[in-house]
Amino acid sequence: MVTGRCLCGAVTFESDAEPIARRACWCRDCQYLASGNATANVIFRSDGFRSTGMVTEYVSTADSGAVMRRSFCGACGTPLFSRAESRPQLVVVRVGALDEAARYGPESTIWTASAPPWARIPNSPLNCTGQPAPVAS
Known about the structure:
Largest sheet: 7 strands, mixed
Radius of gyration: 14 Å
Number of domains: 1
């Protein structure tokens, strides 16, 4: 079981299964969300993923064209997870909100073309300059 929470503990979540992908993302939206850095994310199947507590959502269209529903704690503001309306079977969780975040480092980096020149991007054959193909769900 993979578990996590927001900073204040008002929102908790868990997944019965391990993530199906682990990525760092340098898209411009993620740079805003991470205060100028990349976001570190894990992707779970929606079935088996549960959350408790009240989240606030921000809906926007990503550079990929996907309509994203980004959820964060309304009390402390911790970014928690997001879902693409076109892929409701998946949920993208911010690694920093996981209880065992150190276990889930990125396997790849996406949107590398949007990264600033000072970004440190590990070399991986799975890296992508923009939006990668959808992960198998």
